[in-house]
Amino acid sequence: MSRIGKQIIPIPEKVKVEVKKNVIIVKGPLGEETFSFHNEMKIKIDNNIIEVQRPSDSKKHKSLHGLTRSIINNMIIGVVDGYQKVLLLVGVGYSVELKGNGTHLLFTIGYSHQILIDSPLGVDFKVGKGNVITISGTNKQKVGEVAAKVRSLRPPEPYKGKGIKYKDEIIHKKAGKMAKTTGVG
Question: Each residue of 171-184: pLDDT tens digit?
Fold first, then answer.
């Protein structure tokens, strides 16, 4: 039995959940999320509790069971609390600024040109002091994808630690090349 799939999902007071055929709609204080789940999975809602059920114990159904339950749980967390990733821009001369009502980030990160990143629908950018970038939204997958895309512009390098890194990421620095000493006879 899937350990994650068989867990129930409590519905908070502020959240409204609807199921239409194989689409689940979750509405909360921060927004609305929809998800089209596999037509063989069944979602049962009773007394503010969601339960995901599968038709058989085949490997395919077991994996879909856990996946569907996790995505629905993440949707509920997203519309209540939201998700956010914090990135740090480290390097002399590196900068980032918000453009166009906070929907674009303009990076100056050591290339011959500036790089402009657009935010997808439902993802917000904030830039704080010290080149701290906060990416937030209700969809965990979108927030993670945008954060990974921003980090990939200039991943942190292991010698000086310059680049774009997650706030809680630890960069293991390498020792640089050392000059050989010559022994005189």
Answer: 888 887 876 666 66
